[in-house]
Backbone:
């Protein structure tokens, strides 16, 4: 699977169950969320704007962008967790199994983050994002087209601090 | 990393935190465990016996065996979870990145299970075990030598039923 196919397959409504292991304290946090993933067209104004901010000409560059929106709760319904983000991926022209990310938090005031992806030969997608003092590595893979798993780890200057796991089931319309 | 190196690196004492997502009901189960992993010598009587049971001549076959023991609790200290298992891995002679498993539950009355492994180019180890009506796939990888992650999924005749995640931190002796 290439990165474009991988992201196209992510489009739709998902039920996501998430647990976070605090690697320092041993604490556990759990959450559930409805997640919507939308593939952005190349003429989408948000996509064009983000590309311009990053000096990328979206009309000639091969890329794919998705908008991820979530609406959930953390720790047994106590805390609401909603938001959205845009993720734009640009495959390397000489090796499309790897490339860079143009991440954004949706408010136009992104922190300085550098991101890249690696699409493994086993169809596991790894996303790596780094900013000052922070390293995050996420792995995504499909078990079947309607079920995927996701792990992530966060590393700060004092070492790995969090590891999280999501199981995501596609909401199939009847 | 090859499979032998991977298993040698697993030797020692680990603190394991585990969460299990029920993909059918949405329920969550959590557990914590102390895990001890011991590499078995090629002259270990248990290793020799298991090989004999499986018509494998341990004196001439390249293999590695480990004994995994755990002592933990499930769901906030309520249920004790202790046990041990032996895992013996035999690399394919023509392609050691893949091979078979000789699993055992330690009581000599193993169910009919067939198992195999794939060592990925990204150093992720996948273990696949199958018995009648049951398919289990586990993935293991090290973030650093003292921290590793593990995911597993269980598939029954009605589809994928469980997905679990472990973060495992090595107990470093001071």
Residues:
């Amino acid at each position: 699977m290439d990165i474009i196919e991988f992201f196209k397959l992510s489009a739709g409504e998902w039920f996501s169950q998430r647990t976070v292991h605090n690697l320092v304290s041993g604490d556990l946090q759990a959450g559930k969320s409805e997640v919507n993933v939308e593939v952005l067209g190349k003429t989408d104004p948000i996509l064009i704007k983000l590309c311009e901010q990053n000096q990328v000409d979206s009309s000639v560059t091969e890329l794919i962008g998705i908008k991820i929106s979530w609406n959930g709760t953390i720790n047994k319904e106590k805390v609401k967790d909603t938001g959205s983000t845009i993720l734009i991926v640009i495959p390397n022209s000489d090796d499309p199994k790897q490339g860079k990310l143009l991440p954004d938090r949706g408010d136009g005031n992104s922190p300085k983050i550098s991101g890249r992806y690696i699409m493994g030969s086993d169809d596991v997608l790894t996303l790596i994002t780094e900013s000052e003092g922070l390293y995050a590595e996420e792995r995504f893979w499909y078990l079947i087209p309607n079920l995927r798993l996701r792990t992530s780890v966060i590393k700060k200057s004092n070492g790995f601090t969090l590891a999280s796991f999501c199981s995501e089931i596609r909401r199939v319309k009847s």
Notes: The interface with chain B takes residues 15, 17, 19, 21, 23, 26, 28, 30, 32, 118, 120-122, 124, 126, 137, 143-144, 147, 149, 151, 153, 155, 160, 163, 165, 167, 169 of chain A (CB under 8 Å). The longest strand of chain A covers residues 28-40. Helices of chain A lie at 3-10, 45-53. Chain A has two helices and ten strands.
